[in-house]
Amino acid sequence: MGGIAFLKGHGTQNDFVLLPDPDGRLDLTEARVAALCDRQRGLGADGVLRVVRSTAIGESSAGEWFMDYRNADGSIAEMCGNGVRVFARYLVDEGLVTGDFIVGTRAGDRPVQVHPDRSVTVQMGPATIIGASVTMVAGRPFSGVAVNVGNPHLVSVVDDDVDTLDLRDQPDFDKDFFPEGVNLEFINPLADDVLKMRVHERGVGETRACGTGTVAAVAAHLHVAGTDTGAATVEIPGGVVQVTISKGASTLTGPAEIVARGELDEKWWANA
């Protein structure tokens, strides 16, 4: 067809458009990303993953491949845990990598292992507690633990079932504390090692899952319990993932699927 190649994938129903662009030739504007992610006028997605060589866009990474991640509104983001898994699945399926490998991200290099059952483990780096803040959902305040996982999060432990929260609109938050926005997680501890979570992602809205958010949620849960190491299963609307937190490091394990591929119409792209 002579169009622009794309794939569609998801990690626990956090969905992405992948754009293979090894040499960094695509003019990936904010407007084009927003159009691609729009579920009425585009393909629909929570974000875009451009598959590009690190050297092609001048990024310093020990890995050959760099995940150029954009939020659904077109803004650039540092990191996406579910996105890394889908990105890694694509690299393996296409034979572009073998064995364990590294994916470059704006939050730093992320070592990755793809398992035979199609699940993916990502070494997510440190999950750092950076303070406390408050968010407002439908006029109701929720205190939370602020966590940096390469991108900013605020995790609130909720007594009510998180399913009852209205996350259709952007919750308020302290813009002085989070000047570049924040991902907001709301959790119910179901057991010491099981959490239930919903998330409102900056630049996207409520999503079915957030990989860095699950890491932040477990780190915050452990912090509230008085420790900084441990592991937990996190139940999110899109599925289940496993998170481990250790001294200065964390891992995220969960599924990753490629569900479709095709070509974007060049005229649509030019006008987007």
Brief summary of the model shown:
With 272 residues, the chain is of the alpha+beta class. It is 15% helix and 45% strand. The chain contains four helices and 18 strands.
SSE layout:
Layout: E1 4-11, E2 14-20, H1 30-37, E3 47-53, E4 65-71, H2 81-93, E5 101-105, E6 108-114, E7 119-123, E8 128-137, E9 140-148, E10 152-157, E11 172-173, E12 183-191, E13 194-201, E14 205-207, H3 211-224, E15 230-236, E16 239-246, E17 249-255, E18 257-264, H4 266-271
Parallel strand pairs: 2-3, 4-5, 10-12, 13-15
Antiparallel strand pairs: 1-2, 1-18, 3-4, 5-6, 6-7, 7-17, 8-9, 8-11, 9-10, 12-13, 13-14, 15-16, 16-17
How would you characterize this protein structure?
It is globular and about 55 Å long. It has an 18-stranded mixed sheet that branches. With 272 residues, the protein is an alpha+beta fold. Strand 4, helix 2 and strand 5 form a beta-alpha-beta unit. Helices cover 15% and strands 45% of the residues. The mean pLDDT is 96. The chain contains four helices and 18 strands.
